[in-house]
Design brief:
This protein has 232 residues and is mainly alpha-helical. It has a domain of 135 residues. Helix content is 83%, strand content 0%. The chain has eight helices and no strands. Helix 2 packs antiparallel against helix 3 and helix 2 packs across helix 4. The model has no long low-confidence stretch (mean pLDDT 79).
């Protein structure tokens, strides 16, 4: 492998960067950015519109989870199609203007950056599945490996910082939800207590006389009646 200036991994990295850059160059920077914005806008639409249409969806579909999934998917698709049409109109106007060359140049840079992000994510996935010391030689000896490792380390730092912030804000909400559910469960148990089990009923002593006590009582009554008559 040392006889070749580049390894298979270097070739794959170069191919991903070039293909992503050319695709973004053909589409233009504005269309690439607006495409990402359309996906984000569709997700935001689901967050805000789903609570409004949830009652209607649950009237049509009995299962609440299935109703939410169906309604959320429909909202996402409608919003994505509408936003994609809007972004396409804006991108066509930019391409037909004098900013076409600048738009394509910035699009190529955007595509290269996107390709680098994809490569770093792929390296993180490979490193998670296979330890770095067990990587094949064509990956360990790649000339582009230091850059990929630096990008992957930066991504891990950003993600860990973001997830830490999310967890910090999510812990109080999770604790509040747990208390609400516990209060609801206690209230439900107080309103409708569970009936005693048959084992508890069997363990409780029977009220009144048993069969043997009744027979003994009848025998005593029967023996006392002749005595009372003889005394009279």
């Amino acid at each position: 492998m040392s006889d070749f200036p580049l390894t298979v991994a270097d070739g794959a990295v170069l191919a991903v960067l070039v293909l992503s850059g050319l695709l973004a160059f053909a589409r233009g920077f504005v269309q690439e950015v607006l495409s990402v914005a359309a996906w984000i806008g569709a997700i935001i639409a689901v967050v805000f519109v789903l609570p409004l249409v949830r009652p209607l969806a649950q009237q049509v579909i009995d299962q609440p989870l299935v109703a939410d999934i169906a309604a959320g998917g429909a909202i996402f698709l409608v919003a994505l199609i509408a936003l994609s049409i809007l972004t396409g109109m804006i991108a066509r106007r930019v391409k037909s203007s004098q900013l076409n060359a600048v738009d394509r140049s910035l699009g190529f840079l955007f595509g290269v950056a996107r390709g680098g992000l994809v490569i770093c994510l792929a390296y993180l996935a490979v490193s998670w599945l296979v330890p770095p010391q067990d990587h094949p030689a064509w990956l360990r000896e790649a000339r582009s490996l230091p850059l990929v490792e630096s990008g992957a380390a930066w991504l891990k730092e950003v993600v860990s910082r973001y997830t830490g912030t999310v967890e910090q804000h999510a812990d109080p909400a999770r604790e509040h939800l747990r208390k609400v559910l516990e209060t609801e469960r206690l209230a439900r148990d107080m309103m409708s207590p569970e009936p005693k089990s048959s084992s508890l009923r069997d363990a409780m002593p029977e009220q009144g006389y048993g069969q043997r006590e009744r027979r003994e009582l009848e025998r005593l009554i029967g023996t006392e009646r002749p005595t009372d008559r003889s005394g009279q």
